[in-house]
Amino acid sequence: MAKTLYMMRHGETLFNRLKKIQGACDSPLTPKGIADAQRVGAYFQAQGITFDHAYSSTQERASDTLELVTKQPYERLKGIKEWNFGVFEGESEVLNPKPDPVRRSHGDFFCQYGGESDLQVQDRVVKTLTAVMARPDHHQVLVVSHGGASFMFLRQWLSMDEIERQGIVLHNCAVIKYQYDAGRFTFEKIINLAATDKN
Fold this sequence. Notes:
Elements: E1 3-9, H1 14-17, H2 31-46, E2 53-57, H3 60-69, E3 75-77, H4 118-133, E4 140-145, H5 147-157, H6 160-165, E5 175-181, E6 184-191
Parallel strand pairs: 1-4, 2-3, 2-4
Antiparallel strand pairs: 1-5, 5-6
Helix pairs in contact: 2-3, 4-5
GO molecular function: isomerase activity; phosphatase activity
Keywords: Isomerase
InterPro entries: His_Pase_superF_clade-1 (IPR013078), His_PPase_superfam (IPR029033), PG/BPGM_mutase_AS (IPR001345), PGM_Phosphatase (IPR050275)
């Protein structure tokens, strides 16, 4: 029997606003990030969408976002933390490398600087969420994670060509809806409710 996973990216943070690399390091939600998370919570309520379980990464920006979306109890999971960018943490985003032409991501670049590879991130997120959704009482689940972690999870189930064809972009507070059955996730749709930033 198919189950449903709603995987959400956290709200905008100070480092997002300042265009700083933010993986293992953390920064607080901005007023926009708070408002956008509340908007997602209002959407779920208006649509009658409820969750039997909720999870966030262990990072504050994710748990703060979840607490703005729902008041229900939740558990924090290390397995859905953001990509660790090593010594690049907190530095300007202009220092990010160009995508690996084969893997079409940062590939192994950050490993030499104390960080993770794209495939290491993907593996831990896939294993963590598969274990979560395999639990017998988990039928409709909310997870709040991060841009890089969520994107690598998506790439396990959709090719990069298909992601680009569908125009899937993981803005802050974006929610991806998946169906889960027998160890596999199927992309259903993306919900982008964040207010357009005119600044």
